[in-house]
């Protein structure tokens, strides 16, 4: 039996009010084009109590930044893509904004910028606004375009290759009818591509038994699958690895500990119908480690290293931060 989970992300600490207020920052108009954004980045350690700590779980710490900007449009970053060589990121926000920024990565994440901000459009070319602007998942496509998932009005838009990204209007792909059963604030957050070009997505708050409902396939041709997260966690991000496997980002929130995150690897060929997929845990992040509302995950090759990047959604709340962190997956794991 499929049941709905109560939304967990913005109910605590007044986060819902912050996210809703952020929609007021949108202005009507056409979405094409970007403009310069003032961006500052402050390095932070993995563990502010034990600054000598250099690993979490099976992953190696490669640096972290607190990102900020005086521009009130900055924030709410829900997912990201990082270019090969780890010198650039592209991110989307739950208010429909886009971020295109340089990265300073020399084996460690040491800085970010310059940056530009833009706006997502709909198929008609107009900027997405209000409840239509809640972008949550981002997947790079083989042709250089991007797929973006939205919740509240659950859908996936496919943006063709463009410079800057998202400058051309997208097309909406056909999704399974079951997607409409997800809560408005608990839809498609984990979105990625598989080696054969198919899309994979999981629904944050739609479960069947004890597993989260997901689908793999292409426009209008989907196979249903199930994914079992850890108790109290929900899948909110996904990214591919070079060997064809993928890493899932799971998030939990509770008091008094606050946010925690779990990184789970699913081996190539693991996404099949039938039994619920159970991945291999790589790491958990929780206080006093550097943790916030991590929602986005991306991978990039840097030399022989495979680097995972996480970004947190601050919900436009003064109680939260925009964190960008880098973690290396040791060879042989």
Describe this structure as you would to a colleague.
The chain is an all-beta fold and 333 residues long. The protein has a single domain (2-329), classed as Neuraminidase, CATH 2.120.10. The protein has one helix and 24 strands. It has one helix at residues 15-22; strands at 2-4, 34-37, 40-44, 55-56, 59-68, 77-82, 88-93, 97-105, 109-119, 135-140, 146-150, 155-159, 171-172, 188-193, 199-208, 211-218, 221-227, 234-240, 246-254, 258-266, 280-286, 294-302, 305-312, 322-329. Strands 3, 4, 5, 22, 23 and 24 form a six-stranded antiparallel beta sheet that branches. Strand 18 (234-240) and strand 19 (246-254) form a beta hairpin. The longest helix is centred in the first third of the chain and has 8 residues, at 15-22. The relative contact order is 0.19. Residues 1-30 have low confidence and may be disordered.
Radius of gyration, whole Å:
18 Å
Structural class: mainly beta
By DSSP (H or I, 4+ residues per run), the number of helices equals 1
Number of domains: 1
β-strand number: 24
Q: Write down the secondary-structure element order.
A: EHEEEEEEEEEEEEEEEEEEEEEEE
CATH architectural category: 6 Propeller
Uncertain segments are: 1-30
- Which range does the strand content fall in? over 45%
Kindly provide the name of the CATH class.
Mainly Beta
Oligomeric state of the chains?
single chain
Mean pLDDT, rounded to whole units? 91
Our measurement of the CA-to-CA distance between the termini, rounded to an integer number of angstroms, reads: 36 Å
CATH-defined topology? Neuraminidase
Biggest sheet overview: 6 strands, antiparallel
Helix content: under 10%
The dominant shape is globular
